[in-house]
Design a protein that fits this description.
This protein has 375 residues and is of the alpha+beta class. It folds into 2 domains: 44-190, no CATH class; 220-375, no CATH class. 31% of the residues lie in helices and 44% in strands. It has 8 helices and 16 strands. The strands form 2 sheets. Strands 1, 2, 3, 4, 5, 6, 7, 8, 9, 10, 12, 13 and 16 form a 13-stranded mixed beta sheet that branches. β1 (47-54) and β2 form a beta hairpin. α1 (2-43) packs across α3. The longest helix has 42 residues, at 2-43. The termini are far apart. The chain crosses the membrane at residues 12-31. Keywords: Membrane, Transmembrane, Transmembrane helix. One of its GO terms (biological process) is regulation of protein targeting to membrane. InterPro entries: AsmA-related (IPR052894), DUF748 (IPR008023).
Length: 375
């Protein structure tokens, strides 16, 4: 009698365990399906992922691609061979989104600065994520406004391509940063009112040298307040032509030299204060035959004459100040003016030298008009 009762109890226990396992497995598959669906929705119509492997505590995305939208300067906004998301298990059990670590490996990232100066990164991804989170029901909208935390993001073994339409509108100027590694720490959504730390290192390959670039600091994304340092070391000057040369359709006039830059920028209430130093090493210029050409706003002939005795190193100190909300304020133009003033001072270009260069410019315009009238 006792043995039969024990067998019945054992059978019930086994049945309960099996039922719980079935429920757990079913719940797991449902959770996996939901996670995959959310990832696909977050990538949006321009995004794709070949494989999603859901496990705990990691989710691995393989061969991820985010195509550039209409008007984007290149085919892809982002590509990555692998993205690994590491979940916080305790927060996951409480239905909170908390990623301890995100690793983006073997990647390509394009950044576009539009003609109006706005910098765009991962276009449409934010909008797609909002749509995925905020469909037309109260529960989804509530979920969209829930707290989300990402502790650490690392970008490994990749490249970043910067397209600047503010200096060349028809064909944005391209700067490729290879061997790029970057980290982003503490992203607290949706408010983004806390400091997020940023760092990046990479290489810029030029025709004669491979220079180094670094960027680091913090930013409050919601308010744009930030404190950052940018450095360039041994970068070919010719790779920065549009920022230093003002040309009238002539060939580039930089034949040699490298540039070092240190820029410490602080933004508070949309006002920027950025002291910096530029060092031009072994700068060499040649005449392109066009009297309209200038280097840092100085006529080429005057600059070449002044450089004859200063071929080793030219150091320029400057300070950028302005209101980022002022449509009349341009970082590019402000930097150009500051560098031009410092360059003229460093070279000791006299008023006569600049006047002579201006005279050559006027003469060149006159000759061009005469040639045009003869045709």
């Amino acid at each position: 009698m006792a043995a039969a009762k024990a067998r019945r109890v054992g059978t019930w226990a086994v049945g309960i365990v099996v039922a719980l396992l079935v429920i757990a497995v079913g719940g797991w598959f449902f959770l996996v399906h939901e996670m995959k669906q959310r990832i696909v929705e977050t990538l949006g119509p321009l995004g794709s992922v070949e494989e999603i492997d859901v496990g705990f505590p990691q989710i691995t995305l393989s061969r991820v691609r985010l195509r550039g939208p209409e008007g984007w300067p290149t085919a892809d906004a982002m590509r990555a061979e692998r993205i690994v998301l590491e979940l916080d298990l305790r927060d996951a059990l409480r239905n909170r989104v908390h990623l301890r670590n995100v690793t983006v490996d073997n990647y390509y990232l394009s950044i576009y600065r539009s003609p109006d100066g706005r910098v765009r990164l991962l276009p449409d991804l934010k909008e797609a994520a909002q749509k995925a989170d905020a469909k037309a029901n109260d529960e989804a909208i509530k979920r969209a406004n829930e707290e989300k935390l990402i502790d650490h993001v690392s970008f490994e073994r990749g490249s970043m391509e910067f397209f600047d339409g503010s200096v060349q509108q028809q064909q944005p100027y391209r700067v490729l940063i290879s061997d790029a590694r970057a980290t982003v720490d503490h992203v607290h959504l949706p408010a983004l009112t806390e400091r997020t730390s940023l760092s990046m290192t990479g290489s810029i390959k030029g025709p004669s040298h491979t220079g180094a670039v670094t960027f680091g600091g913090w930013m409050v994304i919601a308010t744009k307040d930030s404190q950052t340092r940018t450095t360039l070391r041994s970068v070919d000057i010719s790779t920065l032509d549009p920022y230093l040369l003002k040309k009238s359709g002539a060939k580039a006039t930089v034949t040699g030299g490298t540039i070092d830059l240190t820029l410490d920028a602080t933004v508070r209430d949309y006002r920027i204060h950025a002291p910096g130093t530029v060092v031009l090493n072994h700068l060499q210029l040649s005449e392109g035959g066009n009297p309209l050409d200038t280097f840092m706003s100085i006529p080429i002939k005057a600059a070449i004459a002044a450089l004859k005795d200063r071929k080793e190193q030219i150091k320029l100190d400057f300070v950028l100040d302005g209101d980022l909300r002022d449509p009349k304020f341009s970082l590019n133009e402000s930097l150009s003016k500051k560098l031009a003033a410092g360059f003229a001072k460093a070279l000791g270009v006299s008023a006569e030298g600049v006047a002579k260069g201006a005279g050559d410019t006027v003469k060149g315009i006159g000759n061009a008009l005469m040639n045009l009238l003869k045709k």
